Amino acid sequence: MLTFFVTHTGIAQKYNDALISKKSEINFAKTQKRGIKKNNIIYYVENDLQTISAYKRSKLKWQTNVISVCGEPKKGEPEIRYVGYNTNKLLIVMGKHNFAEIDVNSGVTTLVG
Known about the structure:
Order of helices and strands: EEEEEEEHEEEE
Structural class: mainly beta
Number of strands: 11
Helix content: under 10%
Shape: globular
Number of helices: 1
Strand order of the largest sheet: 1-11-10-9-8-3
């Protein structure tokens, strides 16, 4: 298993509160929502559909480009299709069948299959 750590510093875009889901998952095929709020942290998929940012009190906590870290999927578009929150990880589906996990505390991104 490969583990990569990529963080970006600087100013990220401001997320749109109307696009934050109260649920633990967002499936881009079924909703226009772009973020999940859990434990006062917002996990938001940026406009490029490749980058996830974590915001605490509107300040950027971490940011990771899932496609850059994990590589382009063999099938499907190089973009995030699904985000699920699971205790201490974000579960990510990108392309058709590629899966990644992101540590919610650090932003460490791991390709899992």
